[in-house]
Amino acid sequence: MNMFWKVGVLATKIPARKRLQAGLKEVGENVSRKVSRRQFLTYTLGGTAGFLASGMLFPMVRYAIDPLLKKGEGGQFHDVGLSVDEITETPKQVQFTVHRKDGWYNPPKGEQMTAWVLKLNGEYIAFSPICKHLGCTVNWNSNPQFKNEFFCPCHFGRYKKDGTNVPGTPPSKPLDRYETKVQDGKLLIGPLVKK
Amino acid sequence: MLRAIYDWVDERLDITPLWRDVADHEVPEHVNPAHHFSAFIYCFGGLTFFVVVIQILSGMFLAMNYVPDIENAHRSVQYLQNEVAMGVIVRGMHHWGASVAIVMLFLHTLRVFFTGAYKHPREFNWVIGMLIFFVMLGLGFTGYLLPWDNKAYFATKVGVEIAGSVPVLGPYIATFLQGGDIVGAQTLARFYALHVFFLPAALLGLLGAHFILIRRQGISGPL
């Protein structure tokens, strides 16, 4: 067992910087890499203590970071009670309710969500009203100064009808869209399109 | 690497004397289990402290998901136990640790009693130890209510009734504990505040005093 930590290493194999630190001058001089009893005890006791401490801390840390590792709930489509015939080129506000569990809390009436729905080049689009600047709520045509635009009152963020942000205003990205699909002539709104 | 960081800090802040003063002290032969195995009875105080550290840590993590409100307390406990990863382990540590802490504390008290370590000049540390004992019981009593299930509710009702049976002062103590006329919303909020702020603060202060006195007076001699 003793030979295990009594391995001598030829000084030629040691880089020059290390050799200087060890006070070796002559090439070929031996340096002992013996692990002392104190070092051995320090490592084994430290390792054991570290193992025990990590066994204690691991469940608590895993518990704390669980929200990071949980997968979000899958997308469901909601009937917003809107026939596709009613959708025009002018954005129209629709409201729908999403039932989502918030930890231990289940809002009894669900969560009110809003979407701006319009028809663009024969395609049905549902914009999220959340401003891409800092998350306030945008409105269609709500500021007389900026006609036919989505307008955010917080920092005067503006978007064109197709959701693209007006350059020179705070938002740096176009409005997010909800997934949409048409079923029996009715519009269904799904989860936000992931980017 | 670690050594270099330590040296860098130590050169500037001279931290070595700080931990050396805490860590470097004589352990007499008669309390060292390496010399006499029966000396393990001297470990119970340290074990109590170790369990208290676990209680504080696991309690901090539990508080991330617990709400002291009668509508949500039980639901939040159910959620953190069944739906958060390892929640059952973290809550288990706090649940079983609470009992283990009291057991260790009691064994430590027995050791001090039967080795006569409470005698002159250590009377004052015995008194502090008794105060720690009552604070720990208080932590157990207040923590028991927090899951807000039937067991918690009726245990607290009984506990408050017992406190209320004290002559003259009883009704005042009961009202103080309940924070009102019944065991309810106000009791839960009050017990939570006691459990996570007041009693732990008192406990840490008393533990500090306990340890300072041990270092001042040294460990009592052999039987």
Automatic annotation (TrEMBL), chain B:
Assembly and oligomerization: The main subunits of the menaquinol:cytochrome c complex are a Rieske-type iron-sulfur protein (QcrA), a cytochrome b (QcrB) and a cytochrome c (QcrC).
Topology in membrane: Multi-pass membrane protein
NCBIfam families in the record: cytb_ExtP, PRK03735.1
Entry GO CC: plasma membrane
UniProt entry keywords in alphabetical sequence: Cell membrane, Electron transport, Heme, Iron, Membrane, Metal-binding, Transmembrane, Transmembrane helix, Transport
Source species: Thermoactinomyces mirandus
Transmembrane segment boundaries: 39-67, 96-114, 126-146, 158-179, 191-214
Function recorded in the entry: Component of the menaquinol:cytochrome c reductase complex.
UniProt-recorded name of the protein: Menaquinol:cytochrome c reductase cytochrome b subunit
Pfam families: Cytochrome_B
GO biological process, one term: respiratory electron transport chain
Domain annotation Cytochrome b/b6 N-terminal region profile: ranges: 5-223
Cofactor(s), names only, from the UniProt record: heme c; heme b
Protein localization: Cell membrane
SUPFAM superfamilies (UniProt xref): Transmembrane di-heme cytochromes (SSF81342)
Matches recorded under InterPro entries: Cyt_b/b6_N, Cytb/b6-like_sf, Di-haem_cyt_TM
GO function terms (MF aspect): electron transfer activity; metal ion binding; oxidoreductase activity
